[in-house]
Automatic annotation (TrEMBL):
It comes from Tepidimonas alkaliphilus. It is an enzyme of class 5 (isomerase). The lineage of its organism: Bacteria, Pseudomonadati, Pseudomonadota, Betaproteobacteria, Burkholderiales. The gene is hemL_3. This is Glutamate-1-semialdehyde 2,1-aminomutase. GO terms for molecular function: glutamate-1-semialdehyde 2,1-aminomutase activity; pyridoxal phosphate binding; transaminase activity. PANTHER family: GLUTAMATE-1-SEMIALDEHYDE 2,1-AMINOMUTASE, GLUTAMATE-1-SEMIALDEHYDE 2,1-AMINOMUTASE 1, CHLOROPLASTIC-RELATED. One of its GO terms (cellular component) is cytoplasm.
Length: 431
């Protein structure tokens, strides 16, 4: 049989660098041929060979309702008929902004953009503009999009400035980016002690989904909040992945439950708020947000920002996830998946740990859940890769890299979870 995925991959490689428009899609970490997707429905998608897969990436998070939810499709179709893009304001942008602010009480204003990268980059510029300070803190293993200042890995030693992780980023561009170890309170305190008056913002993924799935501990998060307040820095939550995914009120609602009065100063959003369309946002308190053009001196703009079709898709998605019981059911399905995987790994005698929150999960070929990037990277990569390919052969599509989170949608039923666990039993037994 001809492998249409391989034919398409070869053709793609001739005209698109690496054959893909975002690196992880190329399967470089796990090897093998990427699947070219032809269509999707509910919890599944189909590749160019006509093979069906249970989809646990959901476009890396946005597809929280599953693919082709009828209410979302209808909203998008209606929006398309009224026009694709105007470059002038629309009522739907207000509706989406109002909806986001209603769901995230830490926000008073939001600005809509088209990608998480744009949102994170703009949030940093705004934080620097609003505070008049140059430096930002980020954590190793957190991803905030590919803006130059954020493509940084840790330098050697405590509280030193980082090195670019990408060619094309001059060291001077990241000289104000301080990279610290996630969940390390001592490093955090040392960084503020040394650079406090210079720090504009601390940016963090509250549940880090770009090093698989690692929670910021409550004491660590409490210290982040205290030190930002004490030193006049803005605490910026990157909830591009966790927002409207781990809970209706995002990860910040989970910390607010555990730390009295807790809220971030700014929030960066994407993925679920676009429901699969290019849409992202950043928001915060009025005094900070009013520093943005056209009101204030911090410039930010976008030809397609607040796009009418994307906002229709996002609004329809946000309306469905607010229905009673939505997150309880999604969380229960996701928990059933990770607990089932853990039970199958135990049965097979394979060291394994797993965690989930709402519709987001992670699993590791490690006996204990990791707390930082170095621990995540110590997991058994060859074993993960064998597991990944074994599952793929059995029609289950997990993220093709061990440092990526997974996602369950509302369209995943007990039947898909059960089928996944049966496949996992066979694959784990052979590991
Ligand atoms: C996906 C992601 C981004 C980047 O969003 P894009 O839309 O891919 O630019 C930023 N931050 C986090 C936490 C993400 O998961």
């Amino acid at each position: 049989m001809t492998d249409r995925n391989q034919l398409l991959f070869d053709r793609a490689k001739a005209v698109i660098p690496g054959g893909v428009n975002s690196p992880v899609r190329a399967f470089k970490a796990v090897g093998g041929t990427p699947r070219f997707i032809t269509r999707a429905e509910g919890p599944c998608f189909w590749d160019a060979n006509g093979r069906r897969y249970i989809d646990y990436i959901g476009s890396w998070g946005p597809m929280i309702l599953g693919h082709g939810h009828p209410e979302v499709v209808e909203a998008v179709q209606a929006a398309v008929r009224d026009g694709f893009s105007f470059g002038a304001p629309t009522e739907r942008e207000i509706e989406l902004a109002e909806e986001i602010i209603r769901l995230l009480p830490s926000l008073e204003m939001v600005r809509l953009v088209s990608s998480g990268t744009e949102a994170g980059m703009s949030a940093i510029r705004l934080a620097r503009g609003a505070t008049g300070r140059p430096k930002i803190i980020k954590f190793e293993g957190c991803y905030h999009g590919h803006a130059d200042a954020l493509l940084v890995k840790a330098g050697s030693g405590l509280a030193t400035f980082g090195h670019p992780t990408s060619a094309g980023v001059p060291p001077e561009v990241v000289q104000h980016t301080l990279v610290l170890e996630y969940n390390n309170v001592e490093q955090l305190e040392a960084a503020f002690a040394e650079h406090g008056p210079q720090i504009a913002a601390l940016m963090i993924e509250p549940i880090a989904g770009n090093m698989n799935f690692v929670r910021a501990s409550v004491p660590f998060m409490r210290r982040c909040r205290e030190l930002c307040t004490q030193h006049g820095a803005l605490l910026v939550f990157d909830e591009v992945m966790t927002g409207f995914r781990v809970a209706l009120g995002g990860a910040q609602s989970l910390y607010a439950r555990l730390i009295p009065g807790f809220e971030p100063d700014m929030t960066v959003m994407g993925k679920v708020i676009g429901g699969g369309m290019p849409l992202a946002a950043f928001g915060g308190k009025r005094a900070v947000m009013e520093q943005l053009a056209p009101l204030g001196p911090v410039y930010q703009a976008g030809t397609l920002s607040g796009n009418p079709v994307a906002t229709a898709c996002g609004l329809a998605t946000l309306r469905v996830i607010q229905r009673p019981g939505f997150f309880e059911q999604l969380a229960a399905r996701t928990r059933a998946l990770v607990e089932g995987l853990k039970a199958e790994a135990d049965r097979a005698g394979v060291p394994f740990s797993a965690d989930s929150e709402g519709g987001m999960f992670g699993f590791f070929f490690l006996p204990e859940l990791p707390q930082n990037y170095a621990q995540v990277m110590a997991s058994d990569a060859p074993r993960f890769n064998r597991f990944f390919h074994g599952m793929l052969e059995r029609g289950v599509y997990f993220a093709p890299a061990l440092y990526e989170a997974g996602f369950v949608s509302a369209a995943h039923s007990d039947a898909e979870i059960e089928a996944t666990l049966q496949a996992a039993r066979a694959v784990l037994a052979a590991l």
